[in-house]
Amino acid sequence: MTPSFFLRRLFGAAFDRRHGRLPIALILFLAVSSTFVLDAAAQSSPEARSSEQVQAGQSVPTDVTSDSINIEMKDKLDGLRQQLNAFRESVQSTPDDDAKLADIRVKAEAIVEEMRVASDAMKVRVEQIQGRLTSLGEPPAAGQPAEAPAVAEERSKLENERSQLNLIVDDAGSLSNSATQLANMITNLRRTLFAQTLFRHTELTPDAFVDAGNAFVTEMRDFYSTIGSWGSFVIRFKAFSLLGAIALSVGAAFLFLAGGYRLFGRFLQRSNSDNPAYIKRLSYTFWSTVMHSITFAAFLVTSYLFLEGFNVLRPDVAPMIATFFGFIWFVHFVWKLTYAALAPHETGWRLVRITDRGARLLSLAIIAMAVTNGLDYLLGAVSVALGSPLVLTIAKSLIASVVIGFILIAISFIRPVMAEGEDATGQGRPWPRYFTVTLRVMGGLLLLCVIAGYVGLARFASTQIVLTGAVLALIYIGLLSGKAISKRGAFNDTALGRRLVERYRFGDVGLDQAGLLVGLGIYAVALALGIPLILITWGFQITDIESWVVSFFTEFRIGSISISIVGIFGGLLLFALGYILTRWAQKWIDGNVLARSHVDIGVRNSVKTGIGYLGVGLAVIVGVSAAGINLSNLALVASALSVGIGFGLQNIVSNFVSGLILLVERPFKVGDHVVTGATEGIVKRISVRATEIETFRQQAIIVPNSDLINAAVGNWTLKNRIQRSEIKVSTSYESDPEKVIAILLDIVSEVPEILRNPGPHVEFLAFGGSSLDFELRFHLADMSEGLRIRNAIRIEILKRFREQGVEIPFPRSEVVYHRGLPIFPEEPDVRGGA
Questions:
Q1: S-S: 716 plus which of 231, 527, 673, 824, CB 3.0-4.6 Å?
Q2: Which of 94, 73, 80 is nearest to 23 (CA)?
Q3: Does 723-804 carry CATH code 3.30.70.100?
Q4: Are residues 334 and 470 in contact, defined by beta-carbon separation less than 8 angstroms?
Q5: pLDDT digits 0-9 by tens, 733-763
Q6: Does a cis peptide bond (omega within 30 degrees of 0) precede residue 432?
Q7: 630-719: CATH number
Q8: Domain ranges within the chain, ordered by starting residue
Q9: What is the phi/psi pair of residue 57, to 5°?
C-alpha cells in the first residue's frame, strides 16, 4: 500500500462523495424552494389570482422549477447507472484486486445512500403535492359548472409532477437495489479471495525449490539492472529534483523531530532516576513509542511524496521504494516498543520482572522476527514489481515463516523470569509452563503449516504474531497508563499535574478530574491508533476503515433509528451557544434597559426569568433539530403521554416533573439538612419521583417530589453550613451581670471552631422569677459540630461559675397549710415565690 495510494484513498473518496452529493443537495434546495412558492401562491384563491392577472394583461406563470428538478434528477440517475455498469465491468475484469474491490464497494454504498436521501426527498414532495390536491378538491363532475382555468391548470400540473416523481422514486429504488447487490457481490468476492489466499495449497517439491532458486537469481539480476538504470536516469536528468526532494525531506524530518521533542520532550527521554515510579515507566513506554512512530511515519510519507512530486520515482521503482519505507517504519516501531518496554540496558525502567540477560535475548528475538517478517513483504513487493514467478514469492514466505517459527520455539527456552528478591543480573528462571507451551505450539503450528503446503496461512499467522502482537502490546500499555493516571491522587505526582498546580492553581478536586480526563484521552489515543493497524493487518483495506469511520461519525443505524455523532456534537455546540447568548441577553437587558428605566425589582426579576426560559427553550429546540432528532416523533411521544396522564397518571407525572425541577433548580442537594412539615433530616437521595430524607433517628422518609415543590421547605445548608447556636444561662440575683457576660465571652473565645466574624455575644434576656436570664450566641462554620461544641461549652460554663462563685439558682416553692374542718384532711396551698 503506497503512501500516494493511501492519501488518494483517504481524500479522494471523500472528495468524490461530496461532489456526488452536491446535485442531490441542489435538488433538495430547489424542491423546498418550489414548495414555498406553491404554499405562498395557495394563500389566495385561484380565481382571484387568475382575474388579477387577466386584468393586468399577464399570463398565468408556468412552474418550471419542478420540471428542472425532475430533469436534473433523471440525469443524475442516468449518470449513476452508468457508474454502476462501469463498476460491474471493473469487478469482472479484476476480481483478485482486493484494494480496488474495496474502493468500488465504498462507492456503491455511497450510491445507495444518495438514492435513499433522494427518494426520501421525492416522497416528501409527493406528500406535499397530495396535500395540495386534497385542498383543491375533486374536479367538477359532468354537468356541473366548470372550475376556474387557473385551478384546472394547477391541478393538472401537480398531477403531472406527482406521476413523474413516482417514476423517479421507483427508478431510484431500482438503482439502489442494483448498487446494494453490487456491494454484496463485492463483499462475497473479497471474502472468497481472502480465504483462497490463506488456504491455497502448494506442493513443496524439489523442482519447486530449484525453480525458485533460478527465479531468485534472475530477479536479483533484474533488480540490480532496474535500480542501476533508475539511478543513472536520476543522476543524469533528475539530479536537481532529487536534491530538492532530499532537502525538503531533511527539513521535514527536522520539523517533525524538533516539534515532537519540543511538545513531548519530557515523555521521550528517560530521567536519571534509578527507580522511577510505575506510572512514569508506563507513560514513557507508551508516549515515546507513539510519538517516535508517528513522527517517523510522517517523515517517510512526506519523503515519498516529495520524491513522487518531483517525478524522481519511476512506475517500476515506486512500489519498491514505498514498501522499503514501510519496512523501515515497521522495524523502527517494533524496536522502539521493545526497547522501551524491556529496557535491556536500564533495569529501573523495565516494565516486566525479567533479568538483564533475558531482556537482551527477548529484544533480539523480537527484532529478528520483525526484520524477517518485514523482509518477506519487501522482497514480495520486489517480486511483484519485477514480474517474478509466484514460486519465488512462495519460497520467500516459506523461509520467513520457518525462521519465525524457530525463533518462537527458541524464545520458549529462555530463562528470563526473575524471582522475588532476586538480582536482575542473575540467571533467571524458566517461563511459566502455560507460556512455554503457548510459544512452542505457535512455533510448531507455523512449521506444520509450511510442511503441509499452506504457506499463505503460515505467512498470515506469522504477520499477526509479530505485528498484531506488537500493536496489542502497545494498546495494553496505553490502557494501563490511562488506568494508572486515572487513579485517585495519581495525577498529582505527574509532571503535567504539577504544572497545572503551579501555573493554573488547580486544587485537589480539579486535579483528580483532570487526571480522569487525561486517562480517558489516553484510552482513546491507544484505541484510535491500534485498532486501524490491527484491521489493516487482518486484510481490511484503508477504504473500509475510512468508510466505517465516516459512517460512525456521520450516520449509523440501529434498526430504524439513525444516529449521527457529528450531529449530536453540533447540537450540543449550538445549545451551548444559545445558552451563552441567553445569559448575555438576560444580563444586558436587566443591567441596561430595565435598570435605566427604574423598573420595579420584581418586574425585572420576572422579565429576566422569562427571557431565560425562552432562550433556553429555543436553544433546546435548535440543538435537538441540529442533532437530527425529528421533533414530530417527540410530538407523538407527548401526545401518548398526555393520553396516559388523562387516564390517571397525574400524580406520577407531577412527581416526575417536580423531580426534574428539583434536579435543575437545586433548592437542596444530597447531604443538606432540611425541614419540611414534621420531617427533619439529611437528604440522602433525589430521584425523579421522590426524595429520601434520613432523620436523626436513622429513619428513612420517602417524600414525593410534588410535596417538596408545593410546600415550604427549610434548608439549613442551602448557601453554606454556617449556623448560629444559642446557650441559655440563668444566675441568681446576687450575681454581677457584667461578670457573667465576661465569663461567657472568655469561654467561647477559647473554642477554635467558633467564628470570629460574626463574633459571639451575650444577650441579657430578662429578669426571671428566681434568676437573671442570659443567652450566649455564637456562629459555627459547620453546623454538624454544634451538638459537641455546645455540650463542651456548657460543661466549661459550669466549671467557671463554680470557680468564680456564680450561683445558678433553681425555682423555690412555699407550702402553706390552711386549717379547715377536722373531718377532712388539710389541703396544701402551693404558692410560688422567691
A1: 673
A2: 73
A3: yes
A4: yes
A5: 989 999 999 999 999 988 888 988 888 999 9
A6: no
A7: 2.30.30.60
A8: 69-137+151-199, 206-486, 555-629, 630-719, 723-804
A9: 75, 25
